Amino acid sequence: MRGAIGVQGRKSEKKCSDKEKALWQKKAEEQAAEIRRLKAEAGRAEKGLAQWGRIVDAILAQMALSHGAEVGENAFEIVLPTVRVFENGRDYKVTTTVAPDEKNYIIRVEKRE
Questions:
Q1: pLDDT tens digits for 91-109?
Q2: Sheet of 75-81: strands edge to edge?
Q3: Which of 23, 33, 66, 110 could form an SS bridge with 93, CB 3.0 to 4.6 Å?
Q4: Entry pTM
Q5: CA separation for the pair 14, 31 (Å, rounded)
């Protein structure tokens, strides 16, 4: 009798194991689908950021040239009337100082290498 119960127990354990495997397989497939979705979303976001970066490059270059910067410089300074300024920590290093007359900000924009 004991042997028969033990055998039944093992068969029962094997069935549970198969059920668990199926459950884990289903979860793995769901996770793989989620990863594919996130990668696609990240790809779209990256393309959007790249396009935004090109727009920022063009705007900054135009500002620099219109304020007397020379083509080929890695950094330039722009003096503008007092404005609200933020720091962008991604592609550009933006530093600001107040001009001695305290009526202008000096904004230094450096392209990160």
A1: 666 666 766 776 666 667 7
A2: 75-81, 104-111, 92-98
A3: 110
A4: 0.35
A5: 25
- Integer-rounded Cα Rg, in Å, for the chain is 30
Residue of 79, 113, 112 whose CA lies nearest to 96 = 79
CA atoms 82, 73, 65, 101: torsion sign: positive
| Residue bearing tokens 């289903």 | 26
Q: How many CB atoms lie within 10 A of CB 76?
A: 19
Spatial neighbors of 36 by CB under 8 A, at least 6 apart, are: none
If you write DSSP's letter for every residue of 86-111 in order, what string do you get? ----SSEEEEEEE-TTSSEEEEEEEE
In angstroms, the CA 31 to CA 43 distance is: 18
